[in-house]
Amino acid sequence: MTTLKTWAEAVIDTLQREFPAAMHHTSSSTDDCTVRPRELHPSFYGCFDWHSSVHMQYSGVLLNTMLGSESPASLAALLDDRLSPQALTVEYNYLVEHPGYEMPYGRAWLLQLASIRPSEAMDKLVELTAQHCHDWLGSLNQPVRHGMHSNTAFNLFLILEAAERLGLDSLTDSVRDAAVRLFGDDRDYPLEWELSGHDFLSNGLSEALLMSRVLPDFPQWFDGFLPHRAEALDFLTDIPEVLDPTDGRLAHLYGLALTRAWMIVELAEYFGGSALPRAEALVASARPQLVDGHFMSTHWLITYALRYQLAVE
After folding, report:
1. Cis previous bond, 219, omega within 30
2. CA atoms within 13 A on the CB side of 154
3. Cβ contact 147:194 at 8 Å
4. Are 261 and 268 in contact (CB under 8 A)?
5. Cα–Cα 20 to 30 A to 196, which of 26, 153, 254, 259?
6. What 3-state class would DSSP assign to 150?
7. pTM higher than 0.85 for the full model?
8. Which DSSP string corresponds to 35-90?
9. Residue of 104, 110, 100 whose CA lies nearest to 54
10. What's the superkingdom here (predicted)?
């Protein structure tokens, strides 16, 4: 509980930190240059950027539930404020005007947040985002395979998991169809092409995690996709080195250690008995950055450490 409470306090701190900020707003005219984070996005500011604010609030909701009476009162109050009907209505109106905003990564996390913190105001955002996801899927004829925010497999996984919880049957079906269409024939994945210097995701593990939730014959598919499993595990549990923790893109590699660990745990039965301790070693390498690291780490890493924790439990 001590660790979780420390994480909850860190979530509060980073959500309240309005600057530095990168809201990625595209201005359409000289009359559209108001980019103060708390004015532009009263729900989802703090944590440097919109998508991180969304998924750190997701983390805050989970931590508040897990801690129960030990959860800081200020966390519940902050979430109530950020996810109020008034604030979410501003976010809804913004997304109506900017349908491609934070697609797909931020919007996938928005569905995740909505799946654990439903409300009437959030339902409107869910309906709008589900439509935007359908539009995105309809235009997707090739997957994005690099290990950053636009990674197709990872976003399909997040959307699928959330859509199933939310009862969005049409979106669930569309994601499953897209996964099979885009990845169903993949064989002999070239793992050695990973990693790229700014990755926080393993494309190969993201794809495998997605397909494990889609294919009834996943073990057969996985045998063809990653046939040399022992060598793959050696590669995937090699600890990434971060030479400059103040560089937000290089700090992604801390996240890579955490997401690799989480996904290896999710797929542990296919990797063998040594998978779990090796995943823990990856997490241990990034753990000092979660609370005491530079803001380029603290504004987002807790979400992925928490997903690892939930997978282990």
Report:
1. no
2. 28
3. yes
4. no
5. 26
6. coil
7. yes
8. --HHHH-SSS-SSSSHHHHHHHHHHHHHHHHHHGGGS-HHHHHHHHHHTSHHHHHH
9. 110
10. Bacteria
How many angstroms from the chain centroid is the CA of residue 249?
Answer: 16
The rounded distance, in Å, linking the Cα atoms of 206 and 162 is 16
- Which amino acid is residue 22, in one-letter code? A
